[in-house]
Amino acid sequence: MLEPLWTAFAAGDLGVAKRTGFEYYSATDDASALLFAATVISPHDARQEGLVRWLMDQRRDDHWYSTRDTAFSLYGLIRYLYHTNELHPDLDAQVTVNGQTVLTRHLGQESVTQPAITVTLEKAQLPPGPFTIIITRKGTGKLYYSAELEQMVSDAIAIPAAGTPDLQITRSYRPLALKPGATSNDDTVKPTFAYKVGDTLEVKLQLQAKHAFANIMVEDPLPAGCEALDRGAVDLGEWDDWWTNQIVRDKMVSFAVRYLAAGKPYTISYHLTAQTPGVFTALPVRIYDMYNPGAWADGGAQVVTVRPKF
């Protein structure tokens, strides 16, 4: 029953990212479902280990790409651990980089419920050219590991990064100048990037999708001299906006969007207050599909100046 799926997995075709309508299903979903089914239908199939290794390779830090991917992965892996009884290790692990030991650790049963062990190597420990990482294990039990290389590159952040053409987003700042009875500025209020302490800014985010999307996230970093005006807690159903939820943090304001129709322009508005004099950079606003890492778009960074009130 599972052989066609095993064949697809071996060929690298299992769970090819796909879209049904506007819902997105990832490779992790299908791989996790296959692992869960295999532990029930063919519990002694040795190919399960390769499937577990693949799932672990998709993990980033302590999670997978999305909450959905994380949930599916845990369903499959918990069933696998229950079946293989891997919850009782007794082993010693050692990690060396270019012959120098960077970690030694004993892993026992108590380690199963502890966070993953992280080894961070600084630039000085990674000289230019090839280097060798060796992980050794002595004792009983399985040892799972992953390695990541992170680097930062300089770029002109005022120019939007090249994301997917399926999504577009732009941001503008305007002084709040409401007409009687209005809840947002009209088009006669022109954008500007210079304000005084105490001024209220209206942030306008304009987004559009070339085809229908579901479960979209918009994240807008705040210029450091400004603070978001948050209403605080609201009752369920009180919001009358088309987006689903607003999340205000110290560094950004996020909006969860349930659905975007194809080709229809959308606008999100919220307010900031200028608090600290200075010249500040608002990092690029981003829009992305919460379950599809390949669908995203950035706006450009912008510089906001806040002058003293007097």
Task: Outline the structure in words.
This protein has 310 residues and is an alpha+beta fold. The protein folds into 3 domains: 3-84, no CATH class; 90-140; 167-307, Alpha-macroglobulin, receptor-binding domain (Immunoglobulin-like). 17% of the residues lie in helices and 35% in strands. The protein contains 4 helices and 17 strands. It has a 5-stranded antiparallel beta sheet, with no helix packed on it. The N and C termini lie far apart (76 Å). The mean pLDDT is 84.
Extended strand count: 17
Secondary-structure element order, N to C:
HEEHHHEEEEEEEEEEEEEEE
* Sheet with most strands: strand arrangement: 11-12-9-15-16
**Distance linking N and C termini:** 76 Å
From the helix content, strand content and strand pairing, which structural class follows?
alpha+beta
Domain unit count: 3
CATH class of the largest domain: Mainly Beta
Q: Please outline the major beta sheet.
A: 5 strands, antiparallel
Shape descriptor reads globular
Determine the fraction of residues in helical runs and give it as a percent range.
10-25%
CATH topology of the largest domain: Immunoglobulin-like
